[in-house]
Design brief:
584 residues; mainly alpha; 24 helices
Length: 584
């Protein structure tokens, strides 16, 4: 899983009047569409102008380092008016007249503007309480990225962190509005956030993850002033938010996990599918496509299990895989060490699969203390400075139920040739500001899912059980996520379905269900994207025959950065046609 760094990952809400303060220009290419260039420039500027912390995940220059995103109703309303005007301008451009580069920019803008417009029905700003991508997690990452090298930057750091209590109070106010309108997060998710925020509020000040700016500075006066801000302002605000959730919000939060329990919940889920997958599929269509993929995977896993164990009972195969003495860990430290070796082994075998490799390092580290036991998933943390390492954060406290096969799969998913390969490589590309600030889960998670298959082909797995484990989990998110949210699945049914895979013990299955409750639609993105990339590869191999080169295919997939799946298909079809024409 990729975690984006922002004060609230569920909504990027720029506001009118801030665009002039930020963002490098998006210059039109020679012969390019000038209106599209102006619109792209305005979009990027509005995003960074509203939330300067987006610079820390995009690599774009920040207009300043002193503000948080404004989540007030007035700011949201202003953004929606600005967004509507941008979409109207975009729709006036004839996409058929654009160059290939401009068509890609057009697709990026159209997908973001249309999908965020559709998602308004969710009113997510009124019920965003999340242990997966809530503001409390983003704030920790922002603390790590907050620049303090100059006197001006240190002054801005003090201003930003002194203002965090007001931003927290705004979150509380929004949640109160949501409750009054019958919007809420799932109760089990709220309990997990209470645990996380309590960990942040009660941590010794000098060990608080928010102290990173002071720890990175040699300015004694700044260190003292910053410490006072965290101790006297931020910690009380954290405690206030925790207490609000625990005493006022939790008793009124919805007991149902599915977003369908909120007003307009079915429409919200449809919009969430679009946001996460960039596709216009219904929940039932996603469910059915996933079920078909699960059946195909199960058939292969059964064949492999029969050869290994002499039985075609998939449940028995999974049980034997998970209980095999050479597939389990003896300690948390062993899991972390094994994962580091798995990443190193994958790195050594990755270069032959690509035309070029990024040089940025990725480190494997356990969760920070406040996240342990909160149900958060292992994840990749972006680092936009290629001279500094990115991180694969591993939920190693669950070592007793993790397997070597499962650990290998997660390692390649998060590092090589998965998230780190794709995202570090993207930083080496000559990207536009628009492409740098554009994200979608289907492309990012789809590539990481595809990488799990690629790793098996390239011999990156050491455990003999990994090929079975690799096939029992994929695509089940496409089945279970719409099942939980809109197709009437209970918590118990969803947990049972997840448990069939053997990838989750009882605790991890509970974690996964609450993750789905927290992020409607997100779990469908992995295989929506992964199945599309695999399908495109097969189409390319069929069309090109002996001219097909896997390295060139990967270059075509990764070479334009993150794009919607529809645009990815257009890119690959264009690459196929160009490759065929060169061979004639």
């Amino acid at each position: 899983m990729i975690r984006k760094l922002m004060i609230c990952a569920s909504a990027l809400l720029p506001v009118t009047g801030l665009a002039a303060t930020a963002a490098p220009a998006f210059a039109a290419e020679d012969g390019g569409n000038a209106e599209l260039a102006r619109l792209s420039d305005a979009f990027v500027a509005s995003q960074l102008g509203y939330d300067p912390t987006l610079s820390y995940i995009s690599g774009l220059p920040a207009p300043d380092h002193r503000r948080w995103a404004d989540r007030s109703p007035a700011a949201i309303l202003a953004f929606r008016r600005e967004q509507d005007a941008m979409l109207q301008r975009l729709n006036a451009i004839d996409a058929n007249t654009l160059s290939a580069t401009d068509r890609r920019s057009y697709a990026l803008l159209k997908e973001q503007l249309e999908s965020e417009n559709q998602a308004r029905v969710c009113k997510s700003e009124l019920w965003t309480v999340s242990h997966m991508d809530g503001w409390q997690l983003a704030a920790v990452r922002i603390a790590q990225a907050q620049p303090v090298a100059t006197a001006a930057e240190r002054a801005q750091a003090l201003e930003r962190w002194a203002a965090l209590p007001a931003a927290i109070d705004r979150e509380i106010a929004n949640l109160r509005i949501g409750l009054a309108q019958d919007y809420s997060a799932a109760r089990s998710v709220v309990a997990r956030v209470v645990k996380q925020v309590d960990g942040l509020a009660t941590a010794p000040i000098d060990k608080s993850p928010f102290m990173s700016p002071a720890q990175r500075s040699e300015d004694a006066a700044f260190k003292a002033a910053y410490r006072a801000v965290i101790a006297d302002k931020v910690v009380p605000a954290l405690a206030r938010y925790r207490d609000y959730l625990k005493t006022e919000y939790l008793p009124r939060a919805r007991t149902a996990l599915g977003v369908a329990a909120n007003p307009n919940g079915a429409s919200c889920y449809q919009a969430s599918l679009r946001l996460n997958t960039t596709l216009n599929r219904t929940a039932q269509q996603v469910h059915d496509i996933g079920a078909a993929a699960v059946a195909r995977n199960a058939a292969v896993a059964t064949d492999l299990g029969e050869k290994m164990f002499g039985t075609r009972d998939l449940g028995e195969i999974v049980k034997r895989v998970n209980s095999a003495p050479d597939n389990i860990f003896g300690s948390e430290e062993e899991l972390v060490a094994y994962s580091r070796v798995a990443v190193a082994r994958a790195l050594a075998k990755t270069p032959p699969l690509f035309r070029s490799m990024p040089q940025q390092e990725v480190l494997v580290e356990p969760f920070r203390e406040f996240m342990r036991g909160s149900g958060a998933s292992s994840h990749y943390e972006i680092q936009t400075d290629p001279a500094k390492p990115a991180y694969y954060r591993i939920g190693s406290e669950n070592w007793k139920t993790e397997t070597r096969g499962g650990a290998e799969l997660t390692a390649v998913h998060e590092a090589y040739p998965g998230h780190h390969m794709q995202l570090a490589f993207a930083q080496t590309l000559p990207q536009t500001p628009l492409s740098k600030i554009s994200f979608n889960s289907a492309y990012i998670e789809g590539w990481a899912r595809y990488s799990e298959m690629l790793a098996e082909e390239a011999g990156m797995y050491e455990s003999r059980y990994t090929p079975i484990s690799r096939r029992v989990w994929p695509a089940r998110g496409m089945v279970a996520d719409p099942g939980l949210h809109v197709l009437g699945w209970s918590r118990e049914k969803t947990i049972a379905y997840l448990a069939e895979t053997g990838r989750f013990g009882p605790v991890e299955a509970e974690d996964m269900v609450d993750r789905m409750a927290s992020l409607p639609g997100q779990l469908t993105a992995y295989d929506s994207g992964g199945l599309e990339i695999m399908a495109l590869r097969e189409e390319a191999k069929k069309a090109l025959g002996d001219k097909f080169d896997l390295r060139d295919f990967h270059q075509a997939v990764l070479g334009a950065g993150i794009v919607p799946l529809g645009e990815l298909r257009t890119q690959i079809e264009r690459w196929i046609a160009e490759t065929r024409s060169r061979g004639l």
